[in-house]
Structure formats: structure tokens, C-alpha cells
Design goal:
Elements: E1 2-6, E2 19-23, E3 33-36, E4 53-56, E5 66-69, E6 75-79, E7 88-92, E8 100-101, H1 103-114, E9 119-124, H2 138-152, H3 154-157, E10 164-169, H4 171-182, E11 203-207, H5 220-227, H6 233-238, E12 252-257, H7 266-277, E13 282-287, H8 307-317
Parallel strand pairs: 7-9, 7-10, 10-11, 11-12, 12-13
Antiparallel strand pairs: 1-2, 3-6, 4-5, 5-8, 6-9
Length: 319
């Protein structure tokens, strides 16, 4: 059992400045560190302040499945491998932009990759529907800053700053795809010298991602949380990553299940098509079964269980 300390600030729902969160980890894994990406607080304000809350959703209770809402102090949980191979992954878990799911798409993924030499960073990013002044660009502020933070500290972790990628799941896949396509957008005022560092990922992986905001493809819940109830065509275009792809978009790996009824596989298909049209190196896997939100769980006996090995092999094949 590993314990990670999260220090989101004085308005933490559990009544302490720092709460200790326990989770199951791979044997021999080191205790993860937790760092704030905005030491002086994130940019912008909330019109309706929230209280950061961790909820245990697991059934049975011995299998951790926590979610975080009301995020006011975005943080990175750091998973250091015993023998770093120089590669790093920024991990954006899903949660429909209503919450950030810590375990099955965050910590468990980080443990899997850290066991293979990849330094992993799980991001608890702010949620766009929680009245931040940046609105739908709020998660992008956090993913840009997290990417810059990792590169700035690369030497401390044995990371090659030219081998830093991002992986996102579900709505976290939308956050990752937005970073892949809009890494250079000025969505916040520079806070310090760290913000002069490039936020461009060297590669990306999108796992059953929310991509398009267009009718017929959009995951309605994520779209409403991202854009609010009164959005127009310009909002849809600005926040549909498949419409933002350019030849400068980093190489991208996509994976989906064909029977995903929550986020249609068409999201991955349109993103893959846009990448190929732009001449961007891309790899797409669509499995017949798997549903949605499986992470590293609920895949026993299914071909989709191979996804992390497929991704790892693709990462190792990159120049």
C-alpha cells in the first residue's frame, strides 16, 4: 500500500490542510510525491468558489476508486521508476469534466508505466464547469503548466525533456487532445520563468477520448460541462480538437472500443482522419468490445487488455 499526500489548500473538504490518500500500488513502487503546479495559486477566479473533495466510490471498498471535485489547487502525483528510461508521461484521467478519477485511469496507469521505466505524473486538473474565469480553457491552462513544470524539472527525475508525452482518458482524452493541438495558445499570463518553456508534448495517447463537440459525436455531459448550456458554432469549432489539428501536432496513438456507448468510437476515428490528413504520424486501434472507462480494469479475457502493451511498444518505436 502506497500513501500519497495531497495539499490542496486550507479549504479542503476533509478539514485538514493536507490529506493522505491510500491506494494499491505495484510491488516495490516508491511513495509518490505530490507537487503543486501553481505555487501561488492558479490563474483566474471562480464566480462560485468550490471546496476540494475526494469521494471514495468503490464497491467493494477494498478496491480504490476515488474521484476529486472542486479542484482549486491542481497537483501532480509523481511516480518515479527504479530505473528511469528518460521518458515521461503526463496523465490526465477522465471523469466527464465533472470530476477527476484518480485510481483506475490515473494511479494504476502511472504504476504500470513506472514499472517499465517511464516517469509518470498524474494531474488533478481544474474542471471547466466550476465557474473559473477561463471557462473551457481552464483544463488547458493546467495541462500546459504541467507540461512546462515537468520539462523544467526534467533533470531531477532523469527525464529527457524531448521525450515528454501526454495520455488522457475519456474527458481527460479531450484535455490531452486539446494540449496536443493548442499547446502554443496563450491561455494565461506567464506566472514565472517556467512559463517560457514549451508546452508542446513530444507525443500523445488518447484512450477512449472525448474529442468532438459536434452534434452526433459529442459526449453530451462533457460538452455541457465544458461549454455550458448556451454554446454556439464558434464554441464547438474552437473546442473540437479534430478541427484544430495541424502538421505541427505531435505523433498520436488512439484507442477505443467499438461497443463504447458512452463516448462513441467515432471520436477517435475523426481525430485519426484529421491527423492523417495533416500528415501527422498516428496509430489507431479499435477493439470490438471493451465498453467505456475500463482503464486497466474490466479487461480480463478481452483483446482490449493488450492496450497498455500496444501503447508502450508504440512509444518505444518513436524516433
Amino acid at each position: 500500500m502506497i500513501r500519497a499526500r495531497f495539499c490542496p489548500g486550507p479549504r479542503f473538504a476533509l478539514g485538514t490542510a493536507c490529506a493522505t490518500l491510500a491506494f494499491t500500488a505495484a510491488a516495490g513502487a516508491a511513495d509518490p510525491e505530490s507537487v503543486s503546479i501553481w505555487p501561488d495559486g492558479p490563474p483566474g477566479r471562480q464566480s462560485a468558489p468550490t471546496v476540494q473533495t475526494v469521494t471514495e466510490r468503490s464497491q467493494p471498498p477494498d478496491l480504490r476508486d476515488r474521484s476529486v471535485t472542486g479542484i482549486t489547487h491542481p497537483q501532480l502525483a509523481v511516480f518515479r521508476p527504479e530505473a528511469p528510461d528518460g521518458t515521461a508521461l503526463l496523465i490526465a484521467p477522465g471523469g466527464g469534466y465533472q470530476r477527476v478519477v484518480l485510481d483506475k485511469e490515473g494511479y494504476e496507469t502511472a504504476e504500470w508505466f513506472a514499472a517499465r521505466g517511464v516517469t509518470a505524473f498524474v494531474l488533478t486538473y481544474r474542471l471547466p464547469g466550476e465557474t473559473w474565469s477561463a471557462g473551457p480553457d481552464t483544463p488547458l491552462q493546467d495541462t500546459q503548466r504541467a507540461m512546462r513544470w515537468i520539462r523544467h524539472h526534467a533533470g531531477e527525475f532523469g527525464i529527457d525533456p524531448s521525450r515528454v508525452g501526454v495520455i488522457g482518458f475519456s474527458a481527460g482524452g479531450h484535455a490531452a487532445a486539446t494540449l496536443l493541438t493548442r499547446y502554443g495558445d496563450a491561455v494565461y499570463e506567464p506566472a514565472d520563468a517556467l512559463d517560457r518553456i514549451s508546452a508542446r508534448p513530444d507525443f500523445g495517447a488518447l484512450i477512449y477520448p472525448v474529442i468532438s463537440m459536434r452534434e452526433g459525436l459529442a459526449h453530451a455531459g462533457s460538452r455541457e460541462q465544458l461549454l455550458g448550456p448556451n454554446f454556439g458554432a464558434a464554441d464547438i469549432a474552437a473546442h473540437s480538437p479534430e478541427l484544430q489539428v495541424s502538421p505541427a501536432t505531435p505523433p498520436t496513438f488512439l484507442l477505443h472500443a467499438g461497443d463504447d456507448e458512452a463516448v462513441l468510437a467515432g471520436n477517435s476515428l475523426v481525430m485519426y482522419a484529421a491527423l492523417r490528413e495533416a500528415g501527422v504520424s498516428a496509430e489507431l486501434h479499435v477493439f470490438a468490445t471493451g465498453g467505456h472507462g475500463f482503464g486497466l480494469r474490466h479487461v480480463d479475457g478481452k483483446p482490449v487488455a493488450a492496450w497498455p502493451e500496444l501503447l508502450y511498444a508504440w512509444m518505444r518505436s518513436l524516433p
